[in-house]
Design goal:
Strand content: 15-25%
Order of helices and strands: HEEEHEHE
Largest sheet: 5 strands, mixed
Pfam families: ExbD
Subcellular location: Cell membrane
Family: Belongs to the ExbD/TolR family.
Strand order of the largest sheet: 3-2-1-4-5
Shape: elongated
CATH topology: Nucleotidyltransferase, domain 5
CATH class: Alpha Beta
GO cellular component, one term: plasma membrane
GO molecular function: transmembrane transporter activity
Amino acid sequence: MGPLIDCVFLLLIFFLVSTMYKKEIRDIDIIPPESDSAIKLPPDDEQIVLGIDETGRVFWQGQEISRTDLHSRLRSVAATSIDRRIRLDADHETPFELVVELLDVCQFRGLTNVGIRTYDDRYNR
């Protein structure tokens, strides 16, 4: 009975650590803009998370990348799955023209399933 309990605890620790690590990768240190009409979407592990901070740095799944890398990655995504969902996380201090620039890049590549993350008191408690 003792070895079985050890295995169960090891599995529990493994799943706790792996889920915490997965979330860490996609998080970007931003404060999203507020919205009164935000809707809560179910989590989607297949979605791509693009981020942009107030200084204009671009992030792909939480990792900072260059604009050239962004173009090439979006090109490869468009070639494999054109309907892939993309979530844009932008800080509330980010100049709007930088957000529009990222949206234009996605549209240029044919990726139209793009949403912008916002903050709403009803959902973010």
